[in-house]
Amino acid sequence: MSATERALPMTVPAPDLPARVRIHEVGARDGLQNEKATVPTEVKAEFIRRLADAGLTTIEATSFVHPKWVPQLADAEALFPQVSGLPVALPVLVPNERGLDRALALGARQVAVFASATESFARANLNRGLDEALAAFDPVVRRAKDAGLTVRAYVSMCFGDPWEGAVPVHQVARVCTALMDMGADELSLGDTIGVATPGHVRSLLTELNGRGVPTGSIAVHFHDTYGQALSNTLAALQHGVGIVDASAGGLGGCPYAKSATGNLATEDLVWMLQGLGIDTGVDLGRLTATSVWMAGQLGRPSPSRTVKALSHQE
Ligand code: HMG
Ligand code: MG
Questions:
Q1: Based on the number of CB atoms within 10 Å of its own CB, is 215 exposed (0-12), middle (13-18) or buried (19 or more)?
Q2: Distance of CA 242 from the midpoint of ligand 2 (Å)
Q3: For the chain, which domains are there?
Q4: Which ligand is nearest to the CA of 70?
Q5: What's the alpha-carbon Rg for the chain, to the nearest Å?
Q6: Protein residue with least CA distance to atom 46, ligand 1
Q7: Looking at ligand 1, which atom is closest to the CA of residue 125?
Q8: Ligand 1 atom with minimal separation from the 26 CA
């Protein structure tokens, strides 16, 4: 038994939490999209293979966005076929119909559109106003559903926006319900700049339920800028949310949002869930080893506290 395997939290279940959580791993997409130096396609493919080997079952692979907007993911066509045979779900981001065409051509089965709760971020990220961007997603969602794909809809800036400040929950809910009405299967509530706190999370989830969005269709996507991602996740779990986005090693950031830092680290999340007795199917030792390997590829240590703690014990 390795030191990593020995160092597991004691399991003490807490009441009223989901029995199982599906982790939506975003390290290969959200985690890498902001990296300045080009990460070789083979390294990305190996990263995804190792994540699958560690037990993650939903691994966001890449984005079919404009290569000039996100140069790091310009190799989507080369990467996707290298991993598409893995026995895991491999969602990809599509910003428009052109992106959907590219994803369909490679046989992608899960796509994600990404909207914004604010006007400023819609313009910065999609070069469109909020409503114009939403209208453009309508044919993307419809065509994807007609082709039998699963569609996730991200909503960014759900808790605060670097240009507009606090974002009212009713404003977020309007965008969320529009995407559900289009036919999205799942919403992911993005705290792009990491400003949410647990009460705010609860309030948005309650607002969404009040507008007819079932908790079962909701995922949470917390960036960890202010160290709140895990507390916010616990608040979401207590509300019944069972899908949590996280990034191996805490990699991440959004190139079009100043002050966006890494996502909630998958290892930190798995540590907490194991302690709570919530099943994820993830092998924490293998996952940590993957993040240590990836940190070596990127030339800097992982920001994840759990990765630091476990790898120092080796
Ligand atoms: P645009 O410049 O307005 O595009 O960009 P356009 O529609 O005017 O088209 C201009 C040219 O781009 C055309 O080519 C199109 O064919 C081409 P031309 O006719 O001039 O030769 N084009 C494309 N080429 C390849 N793939 C495409 C594509 N689309 C158009 N998909 C666009 C609009 C949406 C494309 C651009 O703004 C874009 O790519 N944005 C992506 C930004 C991005 O990826 N951000 C990061 C992901 S979001 C995120 O990280 C947040 C999240 O993690 C949740 C959270 O934390 O909140 C999800
Ligand atoms: Mg993100």
A1: middle
A2: 18
A3: 3-313 (3.20.20.70)
A4: 1
A5: 18
A6: 254
A7: 42
A8: 53
Our answer on whether the CB atom of 288 is closer than 6 Å to any ligand 1 atom is no
Question: pLDDT of 108-124, one tens digit each?
Answer: 999 999 999 999 999 99
115 close to 133: Cβ distance less than 8 angstroms: yes
Beta carbon of 254 within 6 Å of any ligand 1 atom? yes
DSSP letter assigned to residue 265: B
pLDDT tens-place string over residues 4-29: 556 789 999 998 999 999 999 999 99
- Give the residue whose CA is nearest to atom 40 of ligand 1: 126
Q: Tell me the sheet residues that pair with 24.
A: 58, 245
Residue given tokens 């799942």 in the structure block:
186
Atom of ligand 1 nearest to the CA of 94: 31
Q: Quick check: 111 and 93 in contact, CB under 8 A?
A: yes
Residue with tokens 């794909």: 149
Q: Of all protein residues, whose CA lies closest to atom 23 belonging to ligand 1? A: 66
CA distances from 4 to 29, 49, 205, 286, 288 (A): 26, 20, 35, 9, 8
Task: Mean pLDDT check: name the lowest of 74-78, 251-255, 285-289.
Answer: 251-255
* Most informative mutation of 26, 34, 65, 223 for ligand 1 (most atoms within 8 A of CB): 65
State the number of CA atoms in the 13 A half-sphere of 293 facing the CB.
14
Tokens for 161, please give them.
Answer: 């926006």
Of 52, 133, 180, 254, the active-site residue reads 254
One-letter amino acid identity for 260?
Answer: A
Closest CA to 284 of 302, 261, 264, 311: 311
- CB count, 10 Å around CB of 3? 12
- Phi, psi dihedral angles at 297 (to 5 degrees): -65, -35
**99 close to ligand 1 (CB < 6 Angstrom):** yes
Q: Is 254 a catalytic residue?
A: yes
